[in-house]
Amino acid sequence: MTLAPVDLNLAVADEAHVDAARRAVLREARRLTLDETFLGRLALVVQEMARNLLLHAGHGELHFNRNGQGFDLLAVDSGPGMANVAQCLSDHYSTKGTMGAGLGAIRRLSDRFDIYSQAGRGTVVFSRFELGADKSRDGLISGALSTPYPGEEVCGDAWAVKGNRVMVCDGLGHGVSAHLVGQRARELFLAHDPAMPLAQLMEQFHRALMSTRGGALAFAEVLLAEGQLNFCGIGNIAGSLVADKSRGLVSANGTIGYKAGRIQPYSYPWDESSLLIMSSDGLTSKCGMSGYPGLTQRHPAVVAAVLHRDFRRHNDDATVLVLKNA
Q1: Cα–Cα distance measured from residue 299 to residue 301, given in angstroms and rounded to the nearest whole number
Q2: In which element (H, E) is residue 294 found?
Q3: Dihedral over alpha carbons 282, 286, 287, 293 (to 10 degrees)
Q4: Alpha-carbon span 220 to 222, nearest angstrom
Q5: Is the dihedral angle over the CA atoms 223, 224, 226, 231 positive or is it negative?
Q6: Backbone phi, psi, residue 320, to 5°
Q7: Helical (H) or strand (E) element with 43
Q8: Which residues have C-beta within 8 Å of that of residue 99, sequence separation ≥ 6?
Q9: Which residues contact 76 (CB under 8 A, 6 or more apart)?
Q10: Which is nearest to 51 in space by CA: 10, 105, 12?
């Protein structure tokens, strides 16, 4: 059985939110597993992440994504940050008079762990739980963060990863009708033949989404052996390639499912240091990596969370997807 992805975006600003976050995450996790040892590890990590948001930043956001056979957790804040991350990760070190085991426990209990912090700008903590073998394919790893228009229960954006290909879709407007566009696009993407050229794939989506309100859509694929990135976009999904220098990726004007205009894929060089960033227009046009030393070396989920935190508009659905070499 294939389950739809779940994105929980939970505000943490009160002690009551800690238990509420743990219950919400476990409720969704039990849809995939009843392994009590696994669920116990997950519950402890959620609790430690949420408590750290309160203790060290006063408030923050906990994001939970279930996509495929695993779970990603991101704790995001704009608090005082850490001057020395390595020291804060060591057991028994605490700035708040606690036992100092929080970050170390999160790292030990997670299948994958990463952290990025800047003094005065805040912290992002990433934890991944895997229910099987590592699902990384084609030597690539990815991460994404997607949040709905404030006040809406569903998001009009959608993203997906299939092998060496990724997709970001922004349904026109927001709310349920936009959400239906994004989810239909995701279903089509996960079912498509990966041998299909991107231009042909975009044409197929254009026809399939004509019964919806349409939106913006972009695909990218990385061909490692050829050292090449192919990108095909319609509408205002922003794409950028970060390597020795950053460059924007070209999308055509139009609305997928309504009036697509000319469908034209473009190719760019890709090497071991390259980083692909794709985002909906819920992020400002100023979104970029300048001013974040060392961020390109972090897990893509951490990169996505930092950019989402610092550049989202707060008046639209907002999605960031990041892809890099494993």
Answers
A1: 5
A2: none
A3: -160
A4: 7
A5: positive
A6: -130, 135
A7: helix 36-52
A8: 92
A9: 60, 61, 62, 63, 122, 123, 124, 305, 308, 309
A10: 12
Both tokens assigned to 58: 């006063």
- Let me know: does 173 contact 148? Beta carbons within 8 Å: no
The structure tokens 């020395």 sit at 84
For 42, the token pair is 């997950």
Burial classification of residue 71, based on how many CB atoms lie within 10 Å of its CB (0-12 exposed, 13-18 middle, 19 or more buried): buried
Exposed e or buried b for every residue in 175-204, given b needs 16+ CB within 10 A? beebbbbbbbbbebbeebeeeeebeebbee
Residue-wise pLDDT tens for the chain (326 aa)? Answer: 344 566 899 999 999 999 999 999 999 999 889 999 999 999 999 999 999 999 999 999 999 998 667 899 999 999 999 877 776 676 555 555 443 357 889 999 999 999 999 999 999 999 999 987 655 556 999 999 999 999 999 999 999 999 999 999 999 999 999 999 999 999 999 999 999 999 999 999 999 999 999 999 999 999 999 999 999 999 999 999 998 788 999 999 999 999 998 899 999 999 999 999 999 999 999 898 999 999 999 999 999 999 999 999 999 999 999 999 98
Please tell me the distance from the alpha carbon of residue 63 to that of residue 4, in angstroms, as a whole number.
17
